[in-house]
Amino acid sequence: MTAQTTLIKNAKIVNEGAIFNGDVLIEGAFITKIDTSISAKSSDVKIIDAEGKYLLPGAIDDQVHFREPGLTQKANIETESKAAIAGGITSFIEMPNTKPQTTTIEKLEEKFAIAAKSSYANYSFMFGGTNDNLDEILKLDKSAVAGLKLFLGSSTGNMLVDDPEVLEKIFKSTNLVISVHCEDEGTIKRNLEAHIEKFGDDIPIKYHPIIRSEEACYLSSSKAIELAKKTGARLHVFHLSTGKETSLFSNKIPLKDKKITAEVCIHHLWFTDEDYDKKGTFIKWNPAVKTAKDRDQLWEALLDDRIDVIATDHAPHTLTEKKNVYTKAPSGGPLVQHALPALLEMHHRGKISIEKIVEKMCHNPAILFQVEKRGYIKEGYFADLVLVDLNNPWTVNKDNVLYKCGWSPFEGSTFKSRITHTILNGNLVYHNAKFSEVKHAKRLTFNR
């Protein structure tokens, strides 16, 4: 069977800090030519006329929770990866706090097997560290797994790594990227107890960022960074939520040479504590959405390259769960379908350039995790591509939300930009709200 050849014509190609008009030739799974004008060599070539739309590399989301196995009433790999494709995210790295947790190589391989059958997007997984699985960590094939995830704050089951000796051993023993959730558990526990004493279980949601405070975040992040500097570990701090934490990170050297890096999530760039009155527990995340000042400082650090990556921390829960009182409503929300449109909305508002969005959502995750041949529009790279119409408004509502949980924190928001085409490994998998019936996802590989 001859490999499909596709020619994208008349695109505004966004890559490595530049936007230029051109065509892209795709043969099989790969980009084979990029030029100002390419002619189709035969009638068999599938031509996509971009009509001046922006052509972006597919985004790589370095932090999602797709809830499979064990929590599939909320979501699963198939439903959420499909929503990701509609949102221009062509590759994801999924977290280990499923049921059972991904803390043994056997459980890791079981997840890869699920994704191989059901995922719409390219996939990899984080391996979870615990207080007692160092032997399993040492057996990992570093070219086959995205990295190691440690919860140094809120978690489920036994995934809170709170033994300092174990933590130091893990930091010393692996050269994998160690991604961490940083919130100090002791600080949060004290704050929560004080608020329960005052309000009972029905604590007003506006106190969430006071319970899960700036102090809790900074204390944990600064300790993790201190340990990374002491041990030489390769540390990546997930979902910064405070302005204070941004002072812990540097823009003095290129990302490829950094040993300590940071990520910010779309919800911390969009919402503030002023939104709790309207959105309630639907914007309850860990770490918490904080003040407008925090949001401004996160933007500043993102744009000056102290923060390296934008991700989603996509973490769906059912509507029933989210409608519970404060102490019983879980933290997290679904975001993969709407993160890129929301960022493009910020571009329309003059907050961020399209080139910078591509750097933070496509290029930098590929550099940081050493993802092989993805994250760029380059000859010889996999053809993971997204066409975006910057002037095709739509409003998020229940009817167009694709998450299994059936809701979005962006409901009611109107976005000016729309993803019209998603190409995965050379195949058109999404076009004008219709999906390919055939799945073309591949397991991510890493240059290590």
UniProtKB/TrEMBL annotation:
Its cofactor is Zn(2+). Keywords: Hydrolase, Metal-binding. SUPFAM superfamilies: Composite domain of metallo-dependent hydrolases (SSF51338), Metallo-dependent hydrolases (SSF51556). Its EC number is 3.5.2.3. Residues 54-429 form the Amidohydrolase-related domain. One of its GO terms (biological process) is purine nucleobase catabolic process. GO terms for molecular function: allantoinase activity; dihydroorotase activity; metal ion binding. It holds the Pfam family Amidohydro_1. GO terms for cellular component: cytoplasm. Belongs to the metallo-dependent hydrolases superfamily. DHOase family. Class I DHOase subfamily. Catalyzes the reversible cyclization of carbamoyl aspartate to dihydroorotate. This is Dihydroorotase. It comes from Neotamlana nanhaiensis.
